[in-house]
């Protein structure tokens, strides 16, 4: 598989029984250019592939890393778009230039096909190692498949479908379509109007006459059945070609899920290859901005500065995102926080470097000052909970701080509660007042943030506030490099910015 250190690899016993594919050929062995060409012509009979067979042939370690990084950049952008609730059309506009640059598939280039195929399997090795990583990888790769499919011509789409060895994926005859034409047209007419923007009746009729239909068991497209977007007869759903992507994507997700589990089971066989493990570890750790918390990167910018006393200092608190400021304000005003808010703030403070001893001191002081609670009551009712958050009680799980997706999944705060996301939970007047007076945003800047809130892009709104308050601009497109989808990432970037030496 790699030109470098081939003898060293072949001598390792863990590769001995895994070096052949189902066809009997050595995956690690060299292949001629002609054999490679024939191989990738069979794998890429169209511009897309389901990645059913493992790659074989030789690539260099440099190609191994660079190809994987390029694909990872694409998947990161897709994940960022998903978190920002981008529509399919918006996602296509953002991702298409990146695909043309990093993962082109518009030509019959052998090198481009190899890069696409190898990079997919390399990232399988990276992201098979936990359920969370597997789910994110499947989601991103499935979205990538959909985007690429939509970018192809109808001819290329039909060619790709014919190459798939999927059960029941076959087109009905013209005679059967004619017999059911009234029912089929009535079913898909609204989809033609709203999905394909065919507002004219003659346009819809003309499109229908040319459209091909697939007949398959209704359980294969249960999501379309639930929304009444397909015609069903005798247990079979009749799927128009422009909606066949739902079925294809579901099959791809299922296939990839099973493949990732098999890869995970065979990961121990790689443990002796000291060339690959550092690369795989590095790639998997950078898959998602929220995963920076899994890399022992807590409080890198704080460097032990956060304790029970300093957390109240303006120098520390000015780096807090609005959600953390809201929690601290609620704690100061009420000398107490309810469960969801306690958890959210406790995990955030843990993430910025507050030790368990300082955390116990911080919460004890906050709850008992003012005479609202005795230290004995705090120790009896709350001490266990905060020690549990640090993995010192119960199942001793090292809980991670909540990312924005987790926070947004929690119930909205009711009266007297302070958890959640202010960009989602505050009314327009309260949010406007805080942005303009509390953060000194101009009216134009406030409008830009509120526009993102109106589109339910709450993490984008938070990112814009960060950019504005740290010398940036809202006119720059928020991407995977700038997008903030974790309160602790906001804090880390703000603290790093704060520590930069001022220009002379």
Automatic annotation (TrEMBL):
Keywords recorded for this protein, A-Z: 4Fe-4S, DNA replication, DNA-binding, Iron, Iron-sulfur, Metal-binding, Primosome
Cofactor(s) for this UniProt protein: [4Fe-4S] cluster
GO cellular component, one term: nuclear envelope
Cofactor binding comment, as recorded: Binds 1 [4Fe-4S] cluster.
Residues covered by the DNA primase large subunit C-terminal domain: 316-491
GO MF annotation, one: metal ion binding
Residues at which [4Fe-4S] cluster binds: 323, 404, 421, 462
Protein name: DNA primase large subunit
